[in-house]
Amino acid sequence: MGDAGILRGMENVRSERVLVAVAACLLAAGIALGLMYGGAGHGVAMVLRWLGVVVLMVFAWRRRSVTPWIFVAMVAGAEVGFDAPAVGVGLRVFSDIFLRLIKTIVAPLILATLVTGIAGHGDLKGVGRMGVKSLVYFEVVTTLALVVGLVAINISKAGVGLHVPEVVSSGEVVTAPPPTHWQDFLLHVFPENIAKSVAEGQILQVAVFAVFFGIALATLSEEKRAPVLRLCESLSEVMFKFTNVVMYFAPIGVGAAMAYTVGHMGLGVLVNLGKLLLTIYGALVAFGLLVLLPIALLFKVPVKRFLVAVAEPATIAFATSTSEAALPRAMESMEALGVPRRIVSFVIPAGYSFNLDGSTLYLAAASIFVAQAAGVHLSLGEQLLMMGTLMLTSKGVAGVPRATLVVLLATAATFRLPTEPIFVILGIDALADMARTTVNVVGNCLASVVVAKWEGQFGAEPVSEVVLEGMAE
Fold first, then answer.
1. DSSP three-state, residue 171
2. Measured between alpha carbons, how far is 138 from 356 in angstroms, rounded to an integer?
3. Which stretches are transmembrane (predicted)?
């Protein structure tokens, strides 16, 4: 019986691989036919691509899991946006619904898990040690991200020779903010009203409140601490269960987000400023291979298991261009991988303000691109000074779309660079945002595993049944 089960499993794997291969061939043929014959072959090309999508749906149905449906939804959404742009743009409402549901989870989840992690163990010295290690790791990795972005844009020189018109028409209006000072960011870290912080989705402020609340709770007697601790433990379990329920809607939300992006921007945007886009994507890939992978190997992270665990939150981040949308699933995935909840609930939320590797790299490349496009020569010293400024200002980048543009405008104002090239970047920012947000999520997930390894706690605690249930769906 056991051998028969193994044989059936092997047959299923082979058939699934065949389905994926057939789908890939149909999609490739449809794309190639569309490129070769243009309008004349548009109908046949479209049919081939949709046949590929249908085969992928069969594959996802056989797997009976949410994760493959998310991948299929991305492909189907891109196809809808390309074939029927008006329909794709109209589907944005489903993406917004998904994001709203996710946002209702984030603050209570962080609050409950952090308080439980700190007060439940009562090891305040351990919390402080973990915080110091996390900040050291964040600073080292984000600095390396700046270096990679700086080197990439200086090699490609994507902005050199770009003609920038004086006025760039754009559907979006971005106003230049005043220069960001470190005092403003430091003040912004601390909440003045926890209800306001929760309502506005200020993740770092909620985390800071949770840390102080957890420390205060840990110092109380067992009699007074136990009821509040049980409430927080129950709330964290409920929010993870809430995440599992919302994830059933994820394929619809992700597909709608892709349909809107392609329908709104169009594939022609790949031609406009393509060199900068390739530079950013190439730099992000290089960062993953030259920085994140060696770090994972250095700390003996199980790379294959980590990639499987991070696949779903990374996909959500790519399609929605929002780190926040992937946060609950990222925390759940890392706990299922073996990172204790108290480490997950501390490192990942903190990383959303201090360890946005993709956004930091993008800011480095985009800042030098602006100078190149404006014909402003920056010496190595000036470029390093700009990177030092970005080390501070990038820490305040929120996990939401287009927040990097605010920092970019502030940096341009600080170094007296023109804003016109920034408005040109708006044309490809949506596509760049997908990649940098994915790297943000992957980098923060890796940070939680690294800190757990550093603390000697990886795989040391049993995983909640609710979390295991969510990963099995």
1. coil
2. 9
3. 18-37, 43-61, 68-91, 97-122, 134-155, 203-221, 242-260, 280-299, 361-380
